[in-house]
Design a protein that fits this description.
The mean pLDDT is 97. α1 packs parallel to α2. This protein has 255 residues and is of the alpha/beta class. The chain has one domain: Alpha-Beta Barrel (TIM Barrel), CATH 3.20.20. The chain is globular, with a radius of gyration of 17 Å. It is built from twelve helices and eight strands. Bound molecules: phosphoenolpyruvate. Phosphoenolpyruvate binds next to β8.
Length: 255
C-alpha cells in the first residue's frame, strides 16, 4: 500500500495550555484555515477544554482528542479520567504514552498498554507515542527501544483493533526543544516502526497504519518531513497553539 492510500493525520497536542475560553477562540481561528484540508485534523486538548472544544468545532472538519485516559471504567483513581467519560462528551482520539507522561508521571509501557486496550475497547482511537531518549540514540539503541515500546504498548491489540491505532514517533530529544529530527532520521525510524508492525501482524496491516512524526514540527519543516514515504502526518506541540502555523502544517499534509 502506498502512502497516498493511508490516512494523513495532523494532530495538535496542546499539553497544559489554554483555558476553555481560550480554546474556543483558538479553534474558531483554526477552523476556517483548515476547512479545505485533505487530511484528518485533530486538536488534543486538556480535559477541562473538551466540552468547549467539541462545541466550538461542531460542523467543522476538526476532530477533538484528549491527552490521556485511564484503563478502569470507574473507581478510586483520584485525578484520572475514564474512556466512558471521554466518549460521552464526544471525544474521538486520545494521546497515550506521551514522553512527558512517561518522564514526569511514571507512565510505563505496561500502563500505556492498559490505556491503549481500554481506549480501543471503548471505541476511542489512540495515538500511541513512542520515541528514544537522546542518550539511547547516542548509545545506538534507538531500534531496540522502539521495538520494545511497539511490542509492549500494543501487546494483545488485535489486527482488527490496529486499524484504529495511530502511532506517533516522537524522539524525546526533539520534543519542545526546537531540535527537529532530520527528515531522513524521521523516515528511518517510521519505516522501522512499520517493519515491526509487519512482524507483529502482517505487511498489509502494517501498511495501513498511520505513523506520525512529532518533535518540533513547524510550518518551516513540515513539507520536508511529510514528503517522506513513511511519515504520514504529525503530532504537533508548540506550533499547534498558533492558528496560522498549525494551518500551514495541515496544508503541507494535504498536498
Ligand atoms: C508533542 O508535544 O508531542 C510535541 C511534538 O511537541 P513540540 O511540537 O512542541 O516539539
Amino acid at each position: 500500500m502506498d502512502k497516498a492510500k493511508r490516512k494523513a493525520i495532523i494532530a495538535g497536542n496542546w499539553k497544559m495550555n489554554k483555558t476553555p475560553k481560550e480554546a474556543t477562540a483558538l479553534l474558531k481561528a483554526i477552523a476556517p484555515l483548515v476547512a479545505d484540508a485533505d487530511c484528518e485534523v485533530i486538536a488534543c486538548v486538556p480535559y477541562v477544554d473538551l466540552a468547549a472544544a467539541i462545541e466550538a468545532t461542531a460542523g467543522t472538519n476538526i476532530k477533538i482528542g484528549a491527552e490521556n485516559c485511564h484503563w478502569a471504567e470507574s473507581g478510586a483513581f483520584t485525578g484520572e479520567i475514564s474512556t466512558g467519560m471521554l466518549k460521552e462528551v464526544g471525544v474521538e482520539y486520545v494521546v497515550l504514552g506521551h514522553s512527558e507522561r512517561r518522564q514526569y508521571f511514571g507512565e510505563t509501557d505496561e500502563t500505556v498498554n492498559k490505556r491503549t486496550k481500554a481506549a480501543l475497547a471503548a471505541g476511542l482511537k489512540p495515538i500511541v507515542c513512542v520515541g528514544e531518549l537522546l542518550w539511547e540514540r547516542e548509545c545506538n539503541i534507538t531500534e531496540e527501544v522502539i521495538a520494545r515500546q511497539i511490542k509492549l504498548d500494543l501487546w494483545d491489540v488485535t489486527e482488527e483493533e490496529l486499524k484504529n491505532v495511530v502511532i506517533a514517533y516522537e524522539p524525546v530529544w526533539a520534543i519542545g526543544t526546537g531540535k527537529t529530527a532530520t527528515s531522513d532520521q524521521a523516515e528511518e525510524v517510521c519505516a522501522f516502526i512499520r517493519a515491526q508492525l509487519a512482524k507483529l501482524y502482517n505487511q498489509d496491516a502494517a501498511d495501513a497504519v498511520t505513523i506520525q512524526y512529532g518533535g518540533s514540527m513547524n510550518d518551516g519543516n513540515a513539507d520536508e518531513l511529510l514528503s517522506k514515504v513513511n511519515v504520514d502526518g504529525g503530532l504537533i506541540g508548540g506550533a499547534s497553539l498558533v492558528a496560522e502555523k498549525f494551518a500551514a502544517i495541515v496544508k503541507a499534509a494535504s498536498k
